Amino acid sequence: MLMAFLPWAAVSKDAFNRYGVFVPVEEEPEPKEPVKTQVGIDRGLGEPVSLSTGKMCRNPLFPSQG
């Protein structure tokens, strides 16, 4: 693997003669609004997912047996 370093980027070539350019970027994260509610998730055997709100979520790909 060939690798060249520039002051602001890195260029590489892999075994399949593909080139890649990696450019570092600095970005300020946007502030997020605080979350006002929380929900717990429980994975189980009887129900695939049950929420702390009482809602049961079934998997649509696997119909319930019985």
Got a strand count?
Answer: 6
Portion in helices:
under 10%
Strand content: 25-35%
Arithmetic mean pLDDT: 76
Structural class: mainly beta
Q: DSSP helix count?
A: 0
Element-by-element helix/strand order? EEEEEE
Largest sheet: 3 strands, antiparallel
Kindly report how far apart the N and C termini lie: 57 Å
Overall geometry: elongated
How would you portray this structure in words?
- The chain has 66 residues and is mainly beta.
- Strand 1 (2-5) and strand 2 (10-13) form a beta hairpin.
- The protein is elongated, with a radius of gyration of 24 Å.
- Helix content is 0%, strand content 30%.
- The model has no long low-confidence stretch (mean pLDDT 76).
Summary tags:
single chain; 66 residues; three-stranded antiparallel sheet
Fold topology:
Elements (H helix, E strand, L loop, with lengths): L1 E4 L4 E4 L5 E4 L18 E3 L5 E3 L4 E2 L9
Antiparallel strand pairs: 1-2, 2-3, 4-5, 5-6
